[in-house]
Write a structure and sequence with these properties.
Oligomer: heterodimer
Shape of chain A: elongated
Largest sheet of chain B: 6 strands, mixed
Distance between the termini of chain B: 101 Å
Helix content of chain A: over 70%
Shape of chain B: elongated
Structural class of chain A: mainly alpha
Distance between the termini of chain A: 61 Å
Number of strands of chain A: 0
Radius of gyration of chain B: 37 Å
Strand content of chain B: 5-15%
Number of helices of chain B: 11
Structural class of chain B: alpha+beta
């Protein structure tokens, strides 16, 4: 944490909203994206991310500077998403088929797909959709490490800090999560093949 | 050599480069010679790279604005809570100080009361004599205390011994260790323990609130009854209600906060009534209570608290808020956060107005706590 950040943190702790906003600016996008992949929906992600920042603002006083602010913020967003997912599971309102709405990227796809044939684009889109829906089918525990490791690219050490788990646990959890993800994808591909065959 | 399924377990870690040197060498050796495992590795790599390629989404358009208003609301809420808590704390601190003083008086008197009452009510001169002895031995240790006696002679003689103040006609006297710190209150039909004015704003006599002055009045009455405690409590309660006493949860809480909290040792033979009564009806209540239990069996401690400082600090905050509100309204600030700020300010304003009204409303009342004890001297 540099001098400027320390200064902002001090002001933010006293309630200065502008200082707080400057302090979190660098983390907002990442927090929103973690929430997006965890929750699988744009609206939910927005709510969770804002909730996380409000919680950060409220509890800045408790923040111990020996841990990094970003790790602390990522831990809060991860926990908020997990809480919400568990709450929903208890209420049996699982949005398994709620694909990542924001992942439409129609425009983006047109721009970057210059060198792809229309068939390839369809196939890739299909794969993306499948991947999103597979991630949503993972258990909360597995989803968390896939989002943090394979989507957000955090190191094992960082994930261990964020999830408050020993690195060894993180390692084996990543291993199981990837296995689970692969199995879901394999069964989805088979389903797809079956459907394709039937339609023929 | 490891088998394929053991190697496949390692794939998930290998792709992150997290295998140790020996594991990695063994893993790579196997992969190079086993096409199935190589395919498996490729498949997993492609899944992970697919995950990696999920693009970061931009924040929703209004994300920052929405968050800003939410943060403002939290900040205002915090400020409001802090303000109210500060004022409340102040209020409670003052009340506690009053209660602490009363506690000392009540405890000291409770002790003396018990020493005296066995003697009370017996017209026999020998008994009065021993009461006199008690008075004589106690007047050094006790700052203030008092009791009634039906025997005018005894009253005269003991009162002369103490302070020289005697009210023959109303069967009342006071004994004081130091006559300079105490004054008798001939206006009451019972005995009133009273002190000269305390430093600060507490006065040991009831102050009627008016346009300019607002007081919080509290009275603690100790009454001794002869009959069965439960039914006596019911009778006194009925008497209080008939005189205009108002019982409620809230009243009980406020009265208790102002009165003593302990009584562990006494609880079995003592019951407490808490209620409020309008200033004008109080004297009637006290008179009928005195008549009911007998003038010698009742004592009252009175404390008046000048509330003007507290109201002043509420008003100061109120004008601050009103300045802020008119500032915002004047500036015509159309930023999205204004409605929230205004709303919170208005809420706080209303809260303070309510508090002030409540204090003023309460000032027309006297909060009364009656400790009813069985007079086991009988």
């Amino acid at each position: 944490m540099n001098e400027n950040e320390k200064h902002l943190l001090e002001s933010a702790k006293k309630g200065d909203i502008e200082a707080f906003e400057k302090l979190i600016e660098a983390h907002e996008k990442k927090v929103f994206n973690i929430a997006l992949r965890m929750m699988g929906s744009y609206e939910d992600a927005k709510d969770m991310a804002q909730e996380a920042f409000i919680r950060v603002y409220r509890s800045l006083g408790d923040f111990k500077e020996q841990s990094s602010l970003s790790t602390w913020i990522y831990r809060i967003i991860t926990n908020i998403c997990l809480d919400e997912l568990r709450k929903r599971k208890n209420k049996k309102v699982l949005y398994i088929d709620d694909n990542i709405r924001s992942d439409d990227g129609e425009i983006k796809r047109d721009i970057v797909s210059d060198d792809l044939t229309p068939e390839e684009i369809v196939e890739r889109d299909e794969m993306k959709r499948m991947l999103s829906s597979a991630i949503n089918e993972l258990s909360e525990e597995h989803r968390t490490v896939i989002v943090l490791r394979d989507i957000q690219g955090f190191s094992y050490k960082e994930i261990s800090d964020i999830t408050n788990c020993p690195e060894g646990t993180v390692k084996s959890r990543i291993c199981r999560a990837r296995q689970a993800l692969k199995e879901i994808l394999v069964s989805k591909k088979e389903l797809l093949k079956d459907r394709y065959v039937k339609e023929m | 050599m490891k088998k394929c399924d053991e190697i496949r377990e390692l794939i998930y870690i290998y792709v992150d480069g997290e295998l140790d040197e020996a594991q990695r060498a063994e893993f790579e050796e196997h992969i190079n010679s086993c096409a199935d495992c190589r395919n498996e590795l490729d498949e997993i790599k492609s899944i992970i790279s697919m995950c990696n390629s999920i693009e970061e989404e931009e924040l929703p358009d209004n994300f920052r604005e929405e968050l800003h208003s939410k943060l403002l609301a939290v900040k205002e809420e915090n400020m409001r809570k802090n303000k109210v808590v500060t004022l409340r704390n102040r209020y409670i601190r003052i009340i506690s100080a009053v209660a602490a003083c009363l506690l000392i008086v009540v405890l000291a008197r409770g002790f003396l009361y018990d020493s005296f009452f066995p003697k009370y009510g017996q017209k026999d001169m020998d008994k009065t004599g021993s009461a006199r002895e008690n008075a004589g031995t106690l007047d050094e240790g006790a700052e203030i205390y008092g009791f009634s006696a039906e025997n005018n002679d005894a009253a005269d003689s003991i009162a002369e011994k103490g302070s020289g103040i005697a009210e023959e006609e109303i069967q009342q006297f006071s004994i004081m260790a130091d006559p300079n710190t105490a004054e008798a209150m001939p206006g009451d039909s019972g005995i009133t323990v009273s002190r000269s004015t305390e430093p600060g704003q507490r006065k040991h006599e009831l102050q009627k609130s008016d346009e300019e002055n607002v007081y919080s009045n509290n009275v603690i009455i100790n009454a001794k009854v002869k009959g069965e405690l439960d039914s006596e409590v019911q009778n006194i309660r009925k008497l209080a209600v008939d005189s205009g006493g108002e019982f409620s949860e809230e009243t009980a809480q406020i009265a208790m906060a102002n009165a003593r909290q302990e009584t562990d040792g006494k609880k079995a033979t003592e019951t407490v009534l808490n209620f409020k009564i309008s200033y004008n009806q109080y004297q009637n209540l006290f008179d009928s209570l005195t008549e009911y239990v007998g003038s010698g069996n009742i004592t009252a401690d009175k404390v008046s608290q000048d509330m003007s400082n507290i109201i002043e600090s509420y008003n100061a905050r109120l004008s601050e808020i009103e300045d802020e509100i008119s500032g915002i309204e004047k500036s015509g600030n159309a930023s999205t956060s204004s409605p929230d700020v205004l709303k919170t300010l208005n809420e706080e304003r209303q809260l303070i107005i309510n508090e002030i009204e409540k204090i003023k409303l309460d000032s027309d009342y006297i909060y009364v706590t009656i400790y009813i004890q069985q007079n086991d001297a009988e």
